[in-house]
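Session log. Operator J.P. requested a structure for one protein chain; no other inputs attached. Running the standard single-chain path with C-alpha coordinate output.
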Amino acid sequence: MFRILAGSAAVFALSTAAFALTPQEELTAACTESGNDAADCACAADHIVETLDETELAFMLAVMEADTNEPTEVMSIAAEQGMEVADIMVMGQKMQVAEPVMREACGIDEFN
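Structure written below.
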Protein backbone atom coordinates (compact mmCIF):
# COMPACT_ATOMS: atom_id res chain seq x y z
CA MET A 1 0.00 0.00 0.00
CA PHE A 2 2.73 2.41 0.94
CA ARG A 3 4.53 1.93 -2.38
CA ILE A 4 1.49 3.14 -4.31
CA LEU A 5 0.89 6.06 -1.99
CA ALA A 6 4.46 7.14 -1.32
CA GLY A 7 5.09 8.27 -4.89
CA SER A 8 2.43 10.93 -4.73
CA ALA A 9 3.76 13.26 -2.04
CA ALA A 10 4.25 16.13 -4.50
CA VAL A 11 0.73 15.80 -5.87
CA PHE A 12 -0.59 15.63 -2.35
CA ALA A 13 1.30 18.76 -1.30
CA LEU A 14 0.11 20.74 -4.32
CA SER A 15 -3.48 19.64 -3.99
CA THR A 16 -3.74 20.39 -0.29
CA ALA A 17 -2.17 23.80 -0.82
CA ALA A 18 -5.02 24.73 -3.13
CA PHE A 19 -7.80 23.42 -0.88
CA ALA A 20 -8.26 20.89 1.87
CA LEU A 21 -9.07 17.39 0.68
CA THR A 22 -10.86 14.66 2.53
CA PRO A 23 -8.82 11.53 3.34
CA GLN A 24 -10.69 9.69 0.57
CA GLU A 25 -9.75 12.38 -1.93
CA GLU A 26 -6.12 12.39 -0.81
CA LEU A 27 -5.85 8.61 -1.07
CA THR A 28 -7.65 8.56 -4.42
CA ALA A 29 -5.34 11.23 -5.82
CA ALA A 30 -2.26 9.34 -4.63
CA CYS A 31 -3.49 6.06 -6.09
CA THR A 32 -4.47 7.66 -9.40
CA GLU A 33 -1.10 9.40 -9.65
CA SER A 34 0.48 5.95 -9.37
CA GLY A 35 -1.29 4.97 -12.59
CA ASN A 36 -4.43 3.26 -11.34
CA ASP A 37 -7.98 3.86 -12.54
CA ALA A 38 -9.70 6.71 -10.67
CA ALA A 39 -12.87 4.71 -9.93
CA ASP A 40 -10.84 1.77 -8.63
CA CYS A 41 -8.79 4.16 -6.51
CA ALA A 42 -11.90 5.82 -5.07
CA CYS A 43 -13.27 2.40 -4.19
CA ALA A 44 -10.02 1.41 -2.46
CA ALA A 45 -9.80 4.75 -0.64
CA ASP A 46 -13.30 4.20 0.75
CA HIS A 47 -12.23 0.78 2.03
CA ILE A 48 -9.09 2.20 3.62
CA VAL A 49 -11.01 4.98 5.38
CA GLU A 50 -13.49 2.41 6.67
CA THR A 51 -10.67 0.08 7.82
CA LEU A 52 -8.35 2.48 9.63
CA ASP A 53 -9.10 4.67 12.62
CA GLU A 54 -8.42 8.41 12.55
CA THR A 55 -4.92 8.09 14.05
CA GLU A 56 -3.90 5.38 11.59
CA LEU A 57 -5.29 7.39 8.69
CA ALA A 58 -3.44 10.51 9.82
CA PHE A 59 -0.25 8.44 10.07
CA MET A 60 -0.71 7.04 6.56
CA LEU A 61 -1.35 10.48 5.08
CA ALA A 62 1.65 11.96 6.91
CA VAL A 63 3.88 9.17 5.59
CA MET A 64 2.61 9.92 2.09
CA GLU A 65 3.57 13.56 2.57
CA ALA A 66 7.03 12.77 3.96
CA ASP A 67 10.18 13.42 1.95
CA THR A 68 11.41 9.86 2.47
CA ASN A 69 10.16 6.57 3.81
CA GLU A 70 13.28 5.94 5.88
CA PRO A 71 12.50 3.99 9.05
CA THR A 72 13.64 6.83 11.31
CA GLU A 73 11.33 9.29 9.57
CA VAL A 74 8.42 6.86 9.62
CA MET A 75 8.93 6.27 13.35
CA SER A 76 9.15 10.02 13.94
CA ILE A 77 5.84 10.47 12.13
CA ALA A 78 4.36 7.65 14.18
CA ALA A 79 5.49 9.33 17.40
CA GLU A 80 3.96 12.63 16.25
CA GLN A 81 0.66 10.79 15.74
CA GLY A 82 0.92 9.13 19.16
CA MET A 83 1.63 5.71 17.65
CA GLU A 84 4.14 3.09 18.70
CA VAL A 85 5.53 0.06 16.87
CA ALA A 86 2.67 -2.10 18.18
CA ASP A 87 0.15 0.35 16.73
CA ILE A 88 1.86 0.21 13.34
CA MET A 89 1.76 -3.59 13.49
CA VAL A 90 -1.98 -3.53 14.22
CA MET A 91 -2.47 -1.13 11.32
CA GLY A 92 -0.52 -3.50 9.07
CA GLN A 93 -2.68 -6.41 10.16
CA LYS A 94 -5.83 -4.43 9.39
CA MET A 95 -4.52 -3.64 5.92
CA GLN A 96 -3.55 -7.29 5.30
CA VAL A 97 -7.11 -8.34 6.10
CA ALA A 98 -8.60 -5.53 4.00
CA GLU A 99 -6.31 -6.01 0.98
CA PRO A 100 -8.01 -9.06 -0.58
CA VAL A 101 -11.43 -7.49 -0.04
CA MET A 102 -10.28 -4.26 -1.71
CA ARG A 103 -8.63 -6.18 -4.53
CA GLU A 104 -11.82 -8.10 -5.26
CA ALA A 105 -14.22 -5.18 -4.79
CA CYS A 106 -12.13 -2.48 -6.42
CA GLY A 107 -10.07 -4.27 -9.04
CA ILE A 108 -6.70 -2.96 -7.92
CA ASP A 109 -4.07 -5.65 -8.23
CA GLU A 110 -1.39 -4.29 -5.93
CA PHE A 111 -1.54 -2.58 -2.56
CA ASN A 112 2.09 -2.70 -1.43
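Operator note: The first helix runs from residue 2 to 6.
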